[in-house]
Design brief:
This protein is mostly helical. It has a domain of 114 residues. It has six helices and three strands; from the N terminus they run E-E-E-H-H-H-H-H-H. Helix 1 runs antiparallel to helix 3 and helix 4 runs antiparallel to helix 5. The two termini are 38 Å apart.
């Protein structure tokens, strides 16, 4: 068996009976995909990269911009934690926000398995953001609906495929042993 790489086609394995493709879930030409990725991942990924830049700008311009963000927090631990922890070192935490949003953007732009982590991170980010007050819910609820819709449409991600493949393999193994 010989292995070689075609830049436009991904890795291939030549076998005695012909060529078998070693495609991954992130490969736009993998079986079951249209060859073109849905626009949601790249657009939301670009948005998160932009928001990372916004945090960089806020840290560079005036970290006091962050001071009143948690004033309407739903719980005292959110309000107090923001003032006592985040605002103790606002530049550091602002840069950590920048790094987190930039990583989410890169994951979403990559597609495949990295995008599934990016989608999950974006949803979790918005769920946590909702702790900062009901006013933020006006942004978060529609954003969550859009994120979940676009994540499900991202054909570079195979949601639940590992679990279903494992259960299928387990079922085949049991059936081969005569267990029903």
């Amino acid at each position: 068996m010989a292995m070689f790489v075609r830049p436009s086609m991904g890795p291939k394995v030549a076998t005695v009976t012909g060529e078998a493709s070693l495609r991954t879930a992130g490969d736009p030409l993998a079986p079951g995909t249209s060859g073109r990725r849905h626009w949601g991942g790249p657009v939301i990924g670009g948005f998160y990269l932009s928001m990372g830049g916004v945090h960089l700008g806020l840290v560079a311009a005036d970290v006091e911009t962050y001071r009143h963000f948690a004033d309407a927090g739903l719980f005292a631990f959110v309000r107090d934690g923001w003032q006592q922890i985040f605002m103790a070192y606002p530049a550091v935490f602002g840069l950590l926000l920048m790094a987190g949003e930039t990583v989410l953007g890169i994951l979403l732009l990559r597609g495949g398995r990295p995008a599934s982590l990016g989608w999950a991170g974006a949803v979790l980010f918005h769920l946590l953001l909702m702790l900062f007050g009901f006013g933020i819910w006006a942004w978060c609820l529609p954003a969550l609906a859009l994120l979940i819709y676009l994540a499900r449409r991202d054909d570079s991600v195979r949601w639940g495929s590992a679990a279903s493949e494992h259960s299928d393999a387990s079922a085949r193994s049991l059936a081969s042993r005569g267990v029903t």
